[in-house]
Amino acid sequence: MAEQGEKKENPMKELRIRKLCLNICVGESGDRLTRAAKVLEQLTGQTPVFSKARYTVRSFGIRRNEKIAVHCTVRGAKAEEILEKGLKVREYELRKNNFSDTGNFGFGIQEHIDLGIKYDPSIGIYGLDFYVVLGRPGFSIADKKRKRGRIGFKHRIRKEEAMRWFQQKVSAECFCNMGVQKPEHLMWPILSFAG
What we know:
By secondary structure, the protein is α+β, with helices and mostly antiparallel strands. The chain has three helices and five strands; from the N terminus they run βαββαββα.
């Protein structure tokens, strides 16, 4: 029989990665955009989707409905693997502003070759945006077509919970696996994220 002082975690409250969205915005259609699509295809092994401009912006030379960006959505173990590479480039550090009020977080990297992709002179170097959507078991009821439900207030993910999950799972996991003592600058309490 379990001890009375020991409180079990509710498995329905467990946070997990629902999806990882990768985005490269080139700002123009043509050859540069197709090369950016090749970068995402090499990284994910999936066919990326092209995004169109919503408005015409003359100062940037962008026309409405012109393809200007490419993105890809990754789920499961592959999402965790790619996120691990991206966080390694960022040295496992995120600011408080990287987290949204709904418990998701995002960050960007300057060069895609930092992720371990071999440099190809014909492709060039592209920056990359990562956006991680967190979820709990039962979140799919809000996405259903028939008999759609709403996620209860207590079941929603808040910013502080996402930050705590990031500290416990991602940063602690990365340094424990390598057998290295966690550096002092990564031992922040929950409220001391760089603002």
